[in-house]
Design brief:
Elements: E1 4-8, H1 18-26, E2 30-33, E3 49-54, H2 69-82, E4 87-90, H3 92-100, E5 105-120, E6 133-144, E7 151-155, E8 163-166, E9 169-172, H4 180-187, H5 190-198, H6 203-245
Parallel strand pairs: 1-2, 1-3, 3-4, 4-9
Antiparallel strand pairs: 5-6, 5-7, 7-8, 8-9
Length: 254
């Protein structure tokens, strides 16, 4: 089987968006699964996974009693990072990776929903085009600490860890993946609109802000996600070579 990227989605509207577009543009296959409520999820063979993407969702990253599949996602993230398999987490996914690596999860001082600035703390090749400060789309209540040994990439006044690198993993608390079409899907989802209004926002204001910031964010998102897709593609080729040469498969480390 040709190695594919595994995309773990938790709710129908939190789609990979621009991340999937980056895979499509280089012809890299991916599989989208929702295993959040499955205690023993049926996941693809680990040695056939070219990369792992963990998307957002309204649940807590360590809410294992209500959503037992989250524990399997955390184990998969640790195993992938242990063998240097590319991993990307967005919002909840960012928190799942961080907590899987030992960071603490807690409720933020207040919800961070809508466009607001983050400050780049450190440069990485994923973020080589970024200015020191940029307005991005936020949509979260929980926050995480920085995993031990991880590189902090961005922060905001309300959230100390907005982006980090930990080995082969990249965590993004904010939402670069949201295209204009996906934004409209979010604004058609009652639970998202409820969160937005509870945080003092409105559909009209969010649409105005998206129109203002999207022209700058789009190329930055493309840079991050095409870079990640390229890493996954390289890893896929490595898996194919290993299979052809009869080399040992990726071990699953829990």
């Amino acid at each position: 089987m040709t190695p594919q990227v595994l995309v773990l989605q938790h709710v129908p509207w939190e789609k990979p968006g621009r991340i999937a577009t980056a895979f499509d543009e280089i012809g890299l296959g991916y599989q989208i699964l929702n295993v959040v409520d499955k205690k023993k999820p049926d996941l693809p063979s680990f040695d056939e996974v070219a990369g792992l993407v963990i998307m957002g969702g309204p649940m807590g990253a360590t809410d294992y009693d209500k959503h037992p599949g989250l524990k399997a996602e955390a184990k998969l993230a640790r195993a992938a990072i242990a063998v240097n398999k590319p991993v990307l987490g967005v919002c909840l996914g960012h928190q799942i990776i961080a907590t899987a690596l030992g960071a603490k999860l807690h409720r933020g001082e207040q919800p961070e929903i809508g466009f607001a600035p983050i400050k780049r703390v450190d440069k990485h090749d994923y973020f080589s085009m970024w200015d020191k400060q940029i307005n991005v789309l936020h949509w979260h209540n929980d926050v995480v600490g920085l995993p031990e040994g991880a590189q902090l990439l961005a922060r905001s006044p309300l959230t100390k860890v907005q982006a980090f690198r930990a080995g082969s993993a990249l965590g993004l608390q904010f939402h670069l993946e949201v295209s204009s079409a996906l934004m409209e899907e979010w604004l058609d989802e009652p639970s998202m609109v409820k969160d937005l209004k509870a945080a003092g926002g409105s559909k009209s204001k969010l649409r105005e802000d998206f129109a203002q910031y999207n022209p700058l964010l789009h190329p930055l998102a493309d840079q991050v996600f095409t870079g990640f897709a390229a890493r996954c593609n390289s890893y896929a080729r490595r898996l194919v070579r290993a299979a052809q040469e009869g080399a040992p498969k990726d071990p699953v480390i829990c």
